[in-house]
Amino acid sequence: MHFTKKYIKRIMEKYKKDFEILENYDKKRELPFQRKRIDVTLSIETINRLKGLREKTGKPISRLIEENLKIWNYLHIRTNIRIIIRIKIPNINPIVQ
């Protein structure tokens, strides 16, 4: 089977993100949906609030943090103005300057 340049270009555009993920994997041996363990220092108050949320929601603390960071990332990417985010668990309240 012979593929035309037009067909190859269309496939590359359609699956651009997937090809970028594979390229990154070749370089770093990491996939964006993999999980890694890190050490983080938090205040006792924050840890207690996270534990309380864990008990209320049944979600692991790492999942709660990830969800809040995804919301922050969405807000940061979608705006053209500078935003300072104050994280209030469980909600995030943006303060626009």
Descriptive report:
This protein is mainly alpha-helical and 97 residues long. The protein is built from four helices and two strands. A two-stranded antiparallel sheet has the order 1-2. A hairpin with a 4-residue loop joins strand 1 and strand 2. The longest helix has 18 residues. The chain is elongated and about 60 Å long. The protein starts with a helix and ends with a strand. About 16% of the residues have low confidence.
Topology (elements, then pairings):
Elements lengths: L4 H10 L1 H13 L15 H14 L3 H18 L4 E5 L4 E5 L1
Antiparallel strand pairs: 1-2
Beta-sheet strand percentage?
A: 5-15%
Order of adjacent strands in the largest pleated sheet? 1-2
Residue share in helices? 55-70%
CA-atom Rg in angstroms: 20 Å
- How are helices and strands ordered from N to C? HHHHEE
Distance between the terminal alpha carbons, to the nearest Å? 58 Å
Biggest sheet statistics: 2 strands, antiparallel
On the 0 to 100 scale, the average pLDDT is: 76
* Class inferred from helices and paired strands: mainly alpha
**Uncertain spans, ≥5 residues at pLDDT below 50?**
79-94
Number of strands: 2
Q: How many helix segments?
A: 4
